[in-house]
Amino acid sequence: MMMNHIIENKFFDIKKLIPKNTQILVVSKNQNFSNIEKLYRVGHRDFGENYIQEMVEKYKKLPKDIRWHMIGRIQSNKLKYIIPFIHLIHSVQNIKQIDIINKIALKYQKIINCLLQIKICDDKNKSGITYQEASKILENETYKKMKNVKIIGIMGMASFQEKLTKVHDEFSYLRKIYNEYKNKYGHYILSMGMSRDYNIAIKYGTTIVRLGTMIFGNRKKTI
Length: 223
Prior knowledge:
- It is a single chain.
- It contains nine helices and eight strands.
- The protein is α/β, with parallel strands linked by helices.
- The chain is globular and about 50 Å long.
- The relative contact order is 0.15.
- α3 links the parallel β2 (about 45-50) and β3 (about 65-70).
């Protein structure tokens, strides 16, 4: 019987390690419908996807009260497919993306919450914008006039290091930016920390941890 509930058991074990004020975002990229449904049945509702097409396919076939999070690179020409149901977009990086989101959201009379993805490491495979670029977006007069999109926090991904000293520095830096933006703009979400470094992110006050491998094991495309 235990073998039939491996994913659920891992999830509950992990929940015990996460502070109650820190949200678990289950990264369901490449996971089949069955694995997502297992966590849904035990009460979890927040799932993150990297690719719009995959997210749309899952949205169509899974319960409609799931809260879907976009955590991958934004494909501006495909945003129209997720705006009707998306809960939170974590990976906004420029005013053009924000403008597109605002215009599509207006058609649906929705307000779409977003995070700015800040680059906090030197890894060329990790995308994001600088603190200076993020601040320019938040002070942009065009953005300030938008009614259907709202930036409510920031997201960042740490470098993949054998020694985690650098990760401490990266999360500390992102936390400082978050503190500034929280005081200035009222931001309330800090999304940082993944399966490998979530415990460090918690130390620096993340409000969302993005966990996939810890729950499902190493990713294999199963859809």
